[in-house]
Design goal:
The protein has helices at 14-27, 72-91, 125-134, 138-158, 167-183, 189-203, 207-210, 246-265, 272-283, 289-312, 319-333; strands at 4-8, 36-40, 46-52, 58-63, 95-96, 99-101, 104-108, 114-118, 123-124, 214-216, 225-227, 233-235, 242-244. The chain is α+β, with helices and mostly antiparallel strands and 334 residues long. The protein has two domains: 4-118, Phosphorylase Kinase, domain 1 (2-Layer Sandwich), CATH 3.30.200; 123-333, Aminoglycoside 3'-phosphotransferase, Chain: A, domain 2 (Alpha-Beta Complex). The strands form three sheets. It has a six-stranded antiparallel β-sheet with strand order 1-2-3-4-8-7, with helices on both faces. A hairpin with a 2-residue loop joins strand 5 (95-96) and strand 6 (99-101). The two termini are 36 Å apart. The relative contact order is 0.11.
């Protein structure tokens, strides 16, 4: 991951005192006068790495204040929400091998709504995908996708509710993505109507309403999943966790794989062996693997297409690549 070095954290900065007196004691480390180097991480929020130059102790600070579209109340809500989500998942068993959720160390509403987390070492899913494409390291990607399937199946099965999925919520998010794409000129009104037609046909399918709600991570991007040795899976960024269809997460992984292979190998179909392996591994964590696989794959095209729409709206990709994603989203949804 690319970290941008920004300099040293001043001892006069209130955040320095917070780290020294409130956070470092939580870690059980004795640092009298830490000297924090500061690095900015690529992120949609304001996320920074603080590294003590003496001990190499690392801490992550995620600031919700000042994030575009977040007012003060929304920033506070998002800070508290992620803090509580992390603590909840750790309390139900995601705090050790092989399934690990990053440990929150504290939060402070007065210091620009900051959430402080431990720094976790690991190799991201993004790196494994790129290596499989550029260096032929396919076996490693197959293995890590199996580990991720195990993590997600455990998360979903452990948090399943008696209530069934409300597919209308996903349709509302679908509409928000279309509105954004139309607002930036990447979709015309004729195409918006075409996508609405796809949405309505999916809404009529009984399979989209029948499964039980689970806690879904909701942002399983390749940057948010880290791997260690063996089955170790380390998951970060739980700001968007919510009750949803389990295939929201599974379809997000599928869509991200398609995106990475389209971007780096210029052919999303080269992702198919990895997608099939991931889905089959996910299904093995149910009493009837074949029935689970059939149920999941019926719903995958909608959620994979939703993921492609989500990626296509990003300002950091150019219009040509956005168009490729939109055309693939049509194929998936059709």
């Amino acid at each position: 991951m690319n970290y941008k070095y920004l300099g040293h954290l001043s001892q006069d900065d209130p955040f320095y005192g917070y780290l020294q007196h409130d956070i470092i004691p939580v870690l059980g480390v004795n640092l009298n006068s830490p000297d924090f180097r500061v690095y900015r991480l690529p992120s949609s929020n304001h996320v920074y790495l603080y590294e003590d130059s003496h001990s190499q102790l690392r801490i992550i600070g995620k600031f919700f204040g000042g994030v575009p579209l977040f007012g003060p109340e929304a920033a506070l809500h998002h800070m508290e929400r992620e803090y509580n989500n992390l603590n909840y998942l750790r309390s139900i068993g995601f705090a050790g091998y092989p399934h690990y959720v990053v440990r929150p160390l504290g939060r402070n509403a007065h210091l620009n709504k900051v959430l402080v987390e431990e720094y976790c070492y690991g190799t991201s899913l993004a790196e494994f995908i790129v290596r499989a494409i550029s260096e032929g390291e396919r076996d490693a990607l197959f293995q890590k996708l199996g580990s991720l399937a195990y993590f997600l199946a455990t998360l979903h099965n452990r948090t399943a509710r008696d209530s069934t999925v409300d597919f209308n919520k996903d349709c509302e998010y679908f509409d928000r993505l279309l509105e954004h794409l139309a607002g930036t000129g990447r979709l015309g009104q004729d195409e918006v109507r075409e996508f609405h037609g796809f949405r309505d046909r999916w809404r009529e399918k009984p399979c989209m309403w029948e499964d039980r709600e689970v806690l879904a991570h909701s942002d399983v991007t390749p940057a948010n999943v880290l791997f260690g040795d063996g089955l170790w899976v380390i998951v970060i960024d739980l700001e968007r966790m919510k009750l949803a269809d389990r295939v929201l997460d599974v379809g997000r992984v599928v869509g991200e794989l398609q995106h990475y292979f389209l971007k780096h190998a210029h052919d999303r179909w080269l992702a198919e062996p990895f997608i099939g392996h991931f889905l089959w591994e996910y299904a093995c964590h149910f009493p009837n693997r074949d029935a689970a696989f059939a149920s999941i794959t019926r719903r995958i095209p909608f959620y994979a297409g939703l993921t492609l729409l989500r990626i296509a709206r990003n300002s950091w990709i150019n219009d040509h690549y956005s168009r490729l994603l939109l055309d693939d989203a049509k194929k998936m949804l059709r």
